[in-house]
Amino acid sequence: MVGKYWYHKSAIIDKGAVIGEGTKIWHFSHVCKGARIGKNCVLGQNVYVAPTAIIGDNVHIQNNVSVYDGVFIADSVFIAPSVVFTNIKKPDPLKPNKDYQRTIICKGAAIGANSTIVCGVTIGGGAFIGAGSVVTKDIGENEIWYGNPAEIKGLK
Under a CB-based contact definition with an 8 Å cutoff, are residues 127 and 94 in contact? Predict the structure, then answer.
């Protein structure tokens, strides 16, 4: 326990990261300077949190997820293993781009394993994204989406 949160000895927590009370950070994770993580969160093994990423309270992020710059995750969100967040619309290795697109995951949303969330979208509160989905557009509150590309399949 460091301060009021806990992290595994293999995790890297940069000075200047803000981490809330009761949060647990597991093996081989890296939280960068400037990242903000709320209270009572769980970051599984091998989670990366970029400098401008913001994670609310009571968020569970399972193994092998990178929360890149421009991603905002509200309270009580569940992110399953190996979810991918992108943050640049048109990557070009010859022109480094730091014009990160904002991605917003609203309160109570759940994102299934191996889903890809293309940057610039908003996933509404309470929405459910099925495993393996590719989200390319905004999703409304309490909507159920899955597929590649993900499509609305119903309401919760």
Answer: no
